[in-house]
Amino acid sequence: MQTRLLGATGERLSALGFGCMGLVGWYGTRNDEEARATLIEAIDRGINHLDTAASYQVGENERFVGSIIRDRRDRVFLATKCGLARGPGGSVIVDNRPETIRSSCDASLERLGIDHIDLFYLHRIDKTVPIEESVGTLAELVRAGKIRYIGLSECSVQTLRRACAVHPVAAVQSEYSVWTRDPEDGLLDACRELGVGFVAYSPLGRGFLAGNFRRLEDLPPDDNRRSQPRFQDENAAHNARIADLVREFAARKGCTPAQLAIAWVLAQGEHILPIPGMKTRAHLADNLGALEVKLTAEECREIAARIDELGVRGDRHPPAMMQALDR
After folding, report:
1. What is the C-alpha to C-alpha distance for residues 153 and 302, in angstroms, rounded to an integer?
2. Is 0.85 topped by the overall pTM?
């Protein structure tokens, strides 16, 4: 398995990580047996970077992942997150108060069935709490041995710099793909400058860039992607042209669309660690093939430029979640 350093920590993680959010629902039909087999096979094939969160299925995701890794704890680097919850009517609650961070850490440890968390993120940035106070609390958890490293998810460059002045930040996690390139507006450079790893979630555009679906009608009624603006009717029809473009480039490289999309993210820098979601062994095998696809800088620029010409329609999150971003 190819590896990459996680920022300045000295930790070598698998170049391809595993985003666990969809293992027990959220996207598509739930199949616990296949999801379990997929995660076990991923670990057996050398993927050691697993990413979950307290908010995924209200803790159920952590319990599911925990049940699998307890006998494999020494083989995985486990990341989870705190500070984000759903409120009434689909509202989003961001809470980075010290007492919430402490209690969330203890609750995650209990659900996971482990004695420490390798990487503990603030899932979103609470603008009502100074980041220095939140990171200071995370630093206390490091000293207590409950967590090893601190991470921030969807933070701004300014927030990252303020956080790093309090305690080293191991990783920043944000959505990044060939059609979501917001981190290129300073965040990727700041991470490189500060020795912070960058963890890219949704490198496959929630499966859309991989060609797993083209319109809402292709998704089960309870699939969360139905709420995503980019997949709404008119937006989906337009954005399908981008998926077609990815497929076109993939054919030129002799790989699958999923492999092309992941390879593009990997090619953007050695400090970038993509964590595609996968819940079937077929998708796992497909994604692992991305490690053998090498894109030149010129090819990467051409792909991005062609997508820019088409333009992506729709926000990358529903309105309530967009409002929770630190921008």
Report:
1. 29
2. yes
Distance CA 72, CA 300 (A): 37
CA–CA gap between residue 148 and residue 139 (Å, rounded): 9
Q: How far apart are CA 245 and CA 266, in angstroms?
A: 19
Q: Residue-wise over 132-160: b if at least 16 C-beta within 10 A, else e?
A: eebbebbebbbeeebbbbbbbbbbbbebb
Alpha-carbon distance 249 to 203, whole Å?
16
Who's near 248: CB < 8 A, 6+ residues apart? none
Gap between the Cα atoms of 99 and 90, Å rounded: 24
Instruction: For residue 277, give the DSSP letter.
Output: B
Element (H, E) at 14: strand 12-14
What's the angle, vertex CA 104, arms to CA 103 and CA 109, rounded to 5?
100
CATH 3.20.20.100 fits 3-206+269-295, yes or no: yes
DSSP β-bridge partners for residue 19: 51, 277
The pLDDT tens digits along the chain (327 residues) read 999 999 999 999 999 999 999 999 878 788 999 999 999 999 999 999 999 999 999 999 999 999 999 999 999 999 999 999 988 877 899 999 999 999 999 999 999 999 999 999 999 999 999 999 999 999 999 999 999 999 999 999 999 999 999 999 999 999 999 999 999 999 999 999 999 999 999 999 999 999 888 888 888 888 888 889 999 889 999 999 999 999 999 999 999 999 999 999 999 999 999 999 999 999 999 999 999 999 999 999 999 999 999 999 999 998 889 988 988
The span from the CA of 144 to the CA of 264, in Å, is 39
- Decide the pairing of beta strands 147-153 and 18-19: unpaired
Residues with active-site annotation = 56
CB atoms within 10 A of CB 29: 10
Query: Phi and psi for 322 in degrees, rounded to 5?
Result: -60, -40
Listed in sequence order, the residues at least 6 apart from 247 whose beta carbon sits closer than 8 Å to its beta carbon are 211, 257
- The count of other CB atoms within 10 Å of the CB of residue 327 is 12
